[in-house]
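Regression check, 2'-monophosphoadenosine-5'-diphosphate case 270:
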Amino acid sequence: MKKWFAVIGNPIAHSLSPYMHDYWLSSQNINASYIPIQVEDGKLEQAVQSLKLLGCSGWNVTVPYKEAIIPFLDQIDESAVGIGAVNTVVKTESGQFVGYNTDGLGFIRSLGQTENTNRILILGAGGAARGIVYAFKQLGYQKLSIANRTKTNAEKLVQELQFGQAITFQEAEEQLQTFDIVIQTTPLGMKNNTKTLPINLKGIKENAIVADIVYNPLVTPFLEEAEKYNVRTINGLGMLVHQGALAFSYWNGSYPNTNDMIQRLTEQLG
Ligand code: ATR
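Current build output:
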């Protein structure tokens, strides 16, 4: 039987995952397809039962179901337990459905070379920040600060993950010179979200990495501001592609070409 994979979420029409996975499947001559499925409010359990029943080999999970799907799976990998959310489901040979989270590691892979990046500043303390902070902890990083509009939310994250230090935006600005990497994890700067973060990058360390997890637009106002300084900027496409590549490797046993995909998507979105 032809294998098939899916992505579930709501809305799902604009997901780039079907394009990405279909391209990788065909470029590796794997006879399978990948389909987007919109799951309506209150229908998640039925949707998961249907995916299992209809022989889906694995699927991605996106907003708003990353947390809600957990009770409907047979096992949750350490990555998803730590983050408290699942973005990838894998069907094992014995027919069990296991939840993973590839978002945080996907983000870190998108950074490429990270030697000499010791001190990390995370801006924002929502779900996306959580995945990234968890991945840095797992990889053995030690110096990480989380700056957030609501400091108590950053404190909560620090406490739950037992990692990092919570600070305000003002404190982040005062300490800016000490960070090797600054990561914007909030939805600010996304198309239709014109608000920008109340942080000024003046004084940022030379050759620091400045990353934004937003990829639409490719250059957010935050990255535009960063480009005024002598830093390396990274947009959110790499995270999208690497979280997908990790999922692909769990399903198919091979790692797809990520640089080529980043280039293709950059052309499409640019
Ligand atoms: P996620 O999908 O990552 O959970 P979210 O819930 O949409 O994202 O956004 C959460 C993050 O964006 C939080 O860090 C939030 O700050 P608060 O904890 O103070 O709410 C941040 N955020 C959202 N709107 C913001 C704004 N106008 N200014 C600064 N931060 C903002």
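Comparison notes: Residues 237-252 form the longest helix (16 residues). The chain is about 35% helix and 20% strand. No diff flagged against the previous build.
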